[in-house]
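EI: anyone free to look at a 314-residue chain?
SC: sure, send it
EI:
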Amino acid sequence: MNMQTQTDLRHELWDDFQGFCEMLYGDPVLVPDPTNIDGLTRDDLTKISHWSDFEFSDIDRLAILTDSFDRFIGRGEDASVITLWRHGTPLVQQIEGEPCERTVDIIMEAICDDLPLDEIAEMQRAATAEKEGAADTKLPANDNVHPLLLRLQRLYGGQIIGDKIHWAKVPPSNVATSIVGVIDGAPWVLTPAGEQFSQLPLPPEPIRASPFKLRDPASLAERDWLFGRHYIRRYLTSTVGAGGGGKSAHAVSEALAMVTGRPLLDPDGPRTRPLRVWYVNCEDPQDEIDRRFHAAAKHFNITAEQIGDRRPAN
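SC: here you go
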């Protein structure tokens, strides 16, 4: 990359980075080592004010230093928080002052909502005032909340204010959004980019304990055995052992026993109903799978007619 290209990239990145600094009410700085900011102090930082103050190789060191949090959250006046820019995928950590998790939280909320710190703080003050007002009515806080909103809040987080959930993180983007109201039993979403109706999957009903009653064991339904006392219909069965212990050979033999309906070690033994078996091997190529089945069939005197079309293998 030539010098002109590097200069242009620095200039272009600086514009985006400056917007980030303004949103977080912070100063642009360089950290000494972007791979390790543990134990970092303000004295370790290098302040910058122009794109020409850093080299192209310093881009990963770009960070934002935010302090004086008492103007936003009423505490954290001595806290300093560093936000590693990382091309728009930031890492946030408090580096100085009395530990205050709220300082990091409000930075993260500003980034997720793509809103300046002062707007986030104002929204939270309004939410607090509304909650305090609701408390003054002496009514339970959730008395008039749609039950679906309560379920959505448990699933996506956020805070219920009136008939809305603010700062919820909804997949697939998991960017902070607001779930607004309920229409025909389904939520609709307000994103930072604008209002969007969304048929979100309804959150599952909460798990409830089932009562247990001891009764006659003979009244319990019998297990639906598929093969011997190993495979049960609708259940997962695992064979666990060290490598080279014969697990694959055992699975091949069981597959042949199931598709033929005969015990392999006793050709004249009792027959069972032949089953359809799909043998899936995620380790070996198809020709190796075929070799193993041919070898097992030859060993146990199994014919193609006995197998029929009941054993696909991949």
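EI: Residues 142-196 form one domain.
SC: 👍
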